[in-house]
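In this section we walk through a basic example: taking a raw amino acid sequence and producing a predicted 3D structure, encoded as discrete structure tokens. The instruction is simple. Fold the sequence below.
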Amino acid sequence: MDNKSIVLNAMRSQGAADAAALAAKSVDGDADGTTLIAAEHQIPTWRQRDFTDVPIGTPYRYNGQVYKLWQAHDSTNQPDWNPDKAVSLWDICHTTDPKTAKEYVTSQGTRGMYQVDECCFFEGKTYRCTAANTVHSPKELPASWEEVTAEEMEV
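The resulting token sequence is shown next.
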């Protein structure tokens, strides 16, 4: 084995260990949406598979968003059970860091509601939620949102 292969294998191994540690923190409730989104490069991309033996709370990336498994299920024969459509199976994550804000996503029932200080990107601007349990966009309910200033984005 050459040096390049040794280094690549070591990096893959470390990456897998980092991803497993982050997933364990998420499952234990020790990693919130802000933590997960900040480390999303360590989170595996969702793919259609059997999730019956995957621990509840395990994070996955899908279409630019980070979701946590909410309910064990087998999606191998269910092509429409992806996180943005099968809302009873997945919980979306939000961040309080405006620099890593994700595109606004409508809540999934009681899951995915925006909480105070959580941020989103909406129609070209970044917003911070100012009210608990917000289920409407900054356009639909502007009283529950404030635009994040450029100065705040630079901090």
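Looking at the output, two observations stand out. Residues 3-154 form a domain with the Seminal Fluid Protein  PDC-109 (Domain B) fold (CATH 2.10.10.90). Residues 87 and 131 are 23 Å apart (CA to CA). In the next section we compare this with other chains.
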